[in-house]
Design goal:
The chain is mostly helical. It has helices at 5-18, 23-41, 47-50, 52-60, 67-80, 83-95, 101-117, 120-137, 142-153, 163-182, 193-221, 231-237, 240-266, 272-289, 295-328, 331-341, 345-360, 366-372, 374-383, 388-404, 410-418, 425-448, 451-461. The longest helix has 34 residues, at 295-328. The protein starts with a helix and ends with a helix.
Length: 463
């Protein structure tokens, strides 16, 4: 019975979270409660908790994780400076006359906003407030409109640079070194956040292209579901010079900023933290040039950045306590024995992990899963010979799919909160189904062709 304590602890945490308790305190509090039980029954070695101060100090002083507040600041500043509105207007002008043009514009803008914020809730809410009323007014089918917004809002999991990939990259880096040491490799190779960024580019672009293709084909087959904007209507609303000005000033500055941040990381010019700091500064300059920067705006941005950063790091601390107690109860050995008994070896174990992570995505956010589940399963999977970049991309897309899936998908809850009353929840559920199928097809493609994630990092870094 006592050897199943890690399983009981994990199930207890899931149950307490479903009751609505805060994640960070649930992780730490439940773990400490089980540690207390273990100390009383003599089944837990208190020496594991003695490692907690060093673990927390290493966490707080982690240079890579310093990128988190900078990326949050960058994303919130771009939101506050109304970049998304101008981006959507620019893209609507560029694609509006195409079948499904506004939907394609929403997809591209959602991709750019996802790259700048990396937070699913922020992107879905922003795109819901800005683009959903426009699409409904344009005559779009509510199912297609809400499905496109939810799907593009979750792109922050896979489109670099994003907070999700920064955190996942840091966790996978530690897991990869741990896996190699367990195999007796004492000069271990490393995997960086940059590797994960580069590995995510091709799958991310494929996903965006498939979204756009689906909207375009739907508009061709059912023009009433995604009507195009006539050129005459566009010219009547804007002069030619005004159109050029909107496209030039609305599209180029944020695009240059995002490409510069990502390019500096991929090119090895800057670390993720340095690039994130430049991105935060660039977003501030962009807001100033657009005359949107004020003391009130700066105060709101700093307040939101502090709140999100504190939430993230409190979860880090709770997850660190959970990880120590889990290992103290022999959780790693339990998981390893389970994986070894699964038919199919590494691929069978990977399939089970993907199913578990998908289901956990209904009740846990990306950050919690990354810091609770990934450190437990990743070292074992990597020791079985799986590629760390491929594993990271698979986890990110899997969670992205989970956040879309009815009835518990987080993206659906976020959009429901800002959608007009006339938009039915059932329409939202039906609308995301095709996009879920697209993501599942990409997952299957990655499973059969890992090179989609691993080829570009090998070319860029020669590893």
């Amino acid at each position: 019975m006592m050897e199943l304590m890690p399983l009981f602890m994990f199930l207890t945490i899931c149950f307490v979270l479903m009751l609505g308790f805060p994640v960070a305190f649930t992780l730490g509090g439940t773990a400490l409660a089980f540690a207390g039980i273990g100390l009383l029954t003599g089944t837990f070695d208190g020496a594991f908790l003695e490692a907690l101060p060093n673990r927390l100090f290493g966490l707080i002083s982690n240079q890579t994780l310093m990128a988190v507040p900078f990326f949050v600041f960058m994303g919130v500043m771009l939101q506050k400076s109304k970049v998304a509105e101008d981006l959507l207007e620019s893209m609507s002008i560029l694609f509006g006359s195409w079948p499904g043009g506004v939907g394609i514009a929403v997809t591209v803008v959602g991709m750019l906003m996802a790259a700048s914020t990396g937070i699913v809730g922020a992107t879905v809410v922003t795109m819901g407030l800005i683009s959903l009323p426009t699409m409904i007014k344009q005559g779009y089918d509510p199912k297609l409109a809400t499905g496109a917004i939810c799907a593009t809002g979750t792109l922050g999991q896979i489109i670099p640079p994003s907070i999700a990939l920064v955190i996942l990259g840091d966790v996978l880096s530690s897991a990869y070194q741990q896996a190699q040491l367990s195999m007796g490799i004492f000069s271990p190779k490393t995997v960086s956040v940059g590797d994960l960024f580069v590995g995510a580019i091709i799958p991310g672009l494929i996903l965006v292209a498939l979204y756009g293709l689906y909207i375009y084909v739907t508009a061709l087959l059912k023009p009433e579901a995604a009507p195009a904007i006539s050129r005459k209507e566009m010219i009547d609303n804007h002069t030619h010079d005004h159109l050029i000005k909107i496209i030039f000033f609305g599209l180029l500055p944020p695009l240059i900023l995002i490409i510069s941040v990502l390019g500096s990381i991929v090119g090895g010019v800057a670390t993720p933290t340095e690039a994130a700091a430049v991105g935060a500064f660039g977003a501030t300059v962009l807001a100033a040039l657009r005359k949107q920067l004020s003391l009130t705006c700066l105060k709101d941005v700093c307040q939101q950045t502090t709140q999100v950063t504190c939430m993230v790091f409190m979860i880090f601390i709770g997850a660190a306590i959970f990880s120590l107690v889990f290992r103290g109860f022999g959780g790693e050995e339990l998981i390893q024995s389970v994986f070894e008994s699964i038919p199919g070896g590494a691929l069978g174990a990977m399939l089970v992990v993907m199913i578990v992570i998908f289901l956990l995505g209904f009740i846990l956010d990306f950050i919690e899963i990354t810091f609770v589940v990934v450190p437990i399963v990743a070292p074992i999977l990597l020791a079985m010979g799986l590629d760390p970049v491929w594993l990271g991309i698979m986890i990110a897309i899997n969670l992205q799919t989970s956040f879309l899936t009815p009835p518990f998908g987080f993206a659906l809850f976020y959009l429901r909160g800002v959608a007009p009353p006339e938009v039915k929840t059932s329409d939202m559920y039906k609308g995301v189904i095709p996009f879920i199928i697209i993501q599942l097809l990409l997952l299957i493609g990655l499973a059969f062709f890992p090179e989609l994630a691993t080829w570009l990092p090998e070319q860029v870094y020669g590893s």
